[in-house]
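Show me any protein, fold above all:
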Amino acid sequence: MASGLTVAVVGATGAAGQTTLKILEERKFPVRELRAFASERSVGKTVTFRGEPVTIRRVEALAFKGVDIAFCSAGSAQAREFAPMIVKAGATVIDKSNAFRMDSDVPLVVPEINADAARRHHGILACPNCTTIVTVMPLKPLHDAGRLTRVIATSFQSVSGAGVNGIAELREQALAWAKGEALTPRHFPHQIAFNLIPAIDRFGPDGYTGEEMKLVNETRKILDAPALRVAPTTVRVPVFTSHSISVTAETEVKITAARARDLFERFPGLKLWDDPAQQRYPMPIAVEGQDDCFVGRIREDLSSPNGLSFWVVGDQLRKGAATNAVQIAELLVRS
């Protein structure tokens, strides 16, 4: 490989890890050597990077000697175990799990929004939850222009947000339905094909799920708005890729729909797709495979004088995970 960095991808066989490898190639990230890691059962197998097979290694301290940047796409428990070890070996870790997001010493970074935070890391940087990233992208220009006071967000989250098992379950159930066979849920608590499940993650004593509280807490941290009122609802939907969020945002200073369109159109990483007369608005099937978040259905809230409603869609495997992580790495390289 050409001169550059030694890069590790932990969880390289999963949906987010596979997309990370793809994004590293697409964005021509300066990789000199790639090291791939996954669970014990995958050790010895291979993944493909730049057309060449890369053998999966076992996660152990010595294997990270000489690594510059490590992308961690494992679960939270594994991240808590692996990340400090990887940092001790000399690498900077960009973690995609929930393990460190709310740690006050770990920056939670969306490069278009708070790039400066990446420079204050102590070895670990965190990527927000995929739904949070898609949601905060259009919230940031509104916050800068009018100061957000309240956000109501209902997410419609694709099955790939639950990993390869979620994708397989929707596919299997759709095929079973076409054959007239019974639809048996294995990964999700209920049938997902031709259904909506208004619960992602475990419920807390207040009736909110863990996924919903991620949206609340992470949005506040990214926007540096600890008092921001956020009312979340998260829903799993029978879509393979891309998360959609219906948002109503209230601001101190009124922002008209026309002004919002201008703000969205000028903000990096957002694309305006808002032409109702031509039935033009963001949809998961059109946004899949894109790095930008697409926003449309922009209208002033009928119930609040300073409210604005809109619809935003983003590919949660790309901008919601892999692309955001690689963008963070690009920040580190530039700095």
Observations:
- The chain has two domains: 5-128+321-334, 132-316.
- Residues 40 and 159 are 25 Å apart (CA to CA).
